[in-house]
Amino acid sequence: MPAHARVVLAKIGLDGHDRGVRILARALRDAGMEVVYLGPWADVEQVVITAVQEDAQIVGISSLAYDHLLVPDLARRLAEEEWDGALLVGGIVQEQDVPALTAAGVHRIFHPGEPLDDVVAAVAAAAHAVVEARA
């Protein structure tokens, strides 16, 4: 894991159910990562500004409704800012939406029931890959 992995977590749109992402934020922090959690109801621009200012390797979006449909716009805005990290999505994502998210540049999608330790390891590996690519 990168010594100074930075992760920005957010819930974009109107989904305010944030228990799962708060648990993930704590697990990532406990694993030694620096975590900035923007909380529920963040907008796309707020996530972009934070990811760039924090020089984050990872942006993670939690969706328990249909707010993951905002992710392609987020990916476009991150690309416009030349952000070169990994975009991750977790939560309830319908299978028919996966191709659009993948095409938009989402690195990985986590579904309910995935072991927390596996998610933490995957985030750490993605952050490590970003650090290596930036070097």
Features:
about 140 residues; alpha/beta; Rossmann fold; about 20% strand
Please provide a written account of the structure.
The chain is α/β, with parallel strands linked by helices. The chain has a single domain, classed as Cobalamin-binding domain (Rossmann fold, 3-Layer(aba) Sandwich). It is 43% helix and 19% strand. The protein is built from five helices and five strands. The protein has helices at residues 19-30, 44-53, 71-80, 98-104, 116-134, and strands at residues 6-10, 34-37, 58-63, 86-91, 106-110. It has a five-stranded parallel beta sheet with strand order 2-1-3-4-5, sandwiched between helices. β4 (86-91), α4 and β5 (106-110) form a beta-alpha-beta unit. α2 crosses α3 (71-80) and α3 runs parallel beside α4. The model has no long low-confidence stretch (mean pLDDT 94).
SSE topology sketch:
Elements: E1 6-10, H1 19-30, E2 34-37, H2 44-53, E3 58-63, H3 71-80, E4 86-91, H4 98-104, E5 106-110, H5 116-134
Parallel strand pairs: 1-2, 1-3, 3-4, 4-5
Helix pairs in contact: 2-3, 3-4
| Rg of Cα set | 13 Å
Helical stretch count? Answer: 5
Order of strands in the sheet with most strands: 2-1-3-4-5
Largest sheet: 5 strands, parallel
| CATH homology superfamily | Cobalamin-binding domain
**SS-based structural class?**
alpha/beta
Q: Give the oligomeric state of the chains in this entry, treating copies of one chain as homo and distinct chains as hetero.
A: single chain
Number of domains: 1
